[in-house]
């Protein structure tokens, strides 16, 4: 009889602990954490929600033990998840479309970057207030198909309504790290860059950030996290936990200004903290690069697909209804994120 009473008390205590853990958003003690591998394209500043979720223990809070691997290129996370070396991809959203067009079934589950994050930098005093100001200039970019090349080309055609070559625009395609120097030494009039390069240009090269192509183009799902459809169907609880952690990380980034600089300094220790201070305003602008939550709207999807199609980086198109499952991000936003 005593053993039965003790067993019942242990059961009740265990249930109480589990209920308390769930109420706090913590994993149940009776359920082991699920190991997952996240394959990021390159280690980039605008993947900051992933880094915050990792460094602040938010994946573990929701029952995931994460490993982050850097694939080394925008297309490389796709083979990583197809071969099951990773479960979650973090890269340019268009890579999910290309993989699906070629026969794989990818599903976008969370937004990582909310605008096409390319800025124009120039020497002080250069007037540059619209896409029209590209006319007649030499533009330093990275090699095609980098967005530093495709985004200004798309903007000139779609927003400016002109052909770059016909208007005397010269594109100077350069290796990583060479764009800012090309502007500083006069080989190029402007450079189109990502962060952290825009802020490095300001803090180390004496350049100015004169125009935001992302702001001009509007909200877009520039980078996303996606999985294979098979993984989604077989592991919905893990996908939900993953989105919960991202929603909480994005909320934290918007509510606590110190978190952005703190985690950026940990992830990019080679950079001067002044770079992160300079970057923050661009990362949290009117069209916020750091999303308020991981949901992907149809407008954001269509903006990205149109951009990539005109830029020539998509092998075909697939509709929002096929390529996005917003249910996990929506639930995560309602319970842990910012509306």
From TrEMBL:
SUPFAM superfamilies: Periplasmic binding protein-like II. It comes from the Bacteria. Pfam families: NMT1. Residues 48-255 form the SsuA/THI5-like domain. Keywords: Signal. GO terms for cellular component: periplasmic space. InterPro entries: SsuA/THI5, TAT_signal, TAT_signal_bac_arc. It is found in: Periplasm. Residues 1-32 form the signal peptide. The keyword Signal applies. Gene3D superfamilies: Periplasmic binding protein-like II. NCBIfam families: TAT_signal_seq. Belongs to the bacterial solute-binding protein SsuA/TauA family. PANTHER family: ALIPHATIC SULFONATES-BINDING PROTEIN-RELATED, TAURINE-BINDING PERIPLASMIC PROTEIN. This is NitT/TauT family transport system substrate-binding protein.
């Amino acid at each position: 009889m005593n053993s039965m009473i003790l067993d019942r008390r242990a059961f009740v205590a265990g249930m109480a602990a589990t209920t308390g853990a769930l109420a706090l958003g913590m994993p149940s003690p009776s359920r082991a954490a699920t190991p997952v591998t996240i394959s990021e394209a390159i280690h980039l500043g605008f993947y900051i929600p992933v880094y915050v979720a990792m460094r602040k223990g938010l994946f573990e809070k929701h029952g995931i033990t994460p490993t982050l691997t850097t694939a080394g290129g925008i297309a490389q996370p796709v083979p990583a998840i197809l071969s099951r070396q990773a479960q979650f991809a973090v890269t340019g959203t268009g890579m999910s479309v290309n993989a699906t067009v070629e026969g794989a079934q990818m599903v976008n589950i969370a937004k990582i970057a909310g605008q096409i994050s390319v800025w124009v930098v120039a020497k002080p005093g250069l007037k540059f207030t619209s896409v029209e100001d590209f006319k007649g200039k030499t533009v330093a970019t990275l090699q095609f198909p980098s967005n530093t090349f495709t985004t200004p080309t798309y903007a000139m055609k779609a927003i400016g309504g002109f052909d770059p070559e016909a208007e005397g625009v010269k594109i100077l395609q350069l290796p990583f790290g060479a764009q800012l120097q090309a502007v500083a030494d006069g080989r190029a009039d402007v450079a189109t860059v990502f962060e952290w390069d825009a802020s490095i240009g300001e803090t180390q090269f004496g350049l100015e950030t004169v125009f935001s192509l992302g702001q001009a183009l509007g909200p877009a799902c520039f980078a996303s996290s996606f999985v294979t459809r098979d993984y989604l169907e077989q592991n919905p609880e893990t996908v939900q936990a993953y989105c919960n952690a991202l929603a909480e990380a994005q909320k934290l980034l918007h509510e606590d200004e110190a978190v952005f600089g703190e985690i950026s300094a940990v992830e990019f220790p080679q950079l001067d903290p002044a770079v992160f201070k300079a970057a923050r305003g661009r990362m949290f602008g009117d069209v916020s690069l750091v999303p308020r939550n991981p949901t992907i709207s149809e407008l954001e999807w269509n903006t990205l697909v149109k951009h990539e199609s005109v830029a020539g980086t998509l092998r075909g198109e697939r509709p929002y209804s096929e390529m996005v499952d917003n249910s996990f991000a929506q639930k995560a936003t309602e319970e842990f994120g910012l509306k």
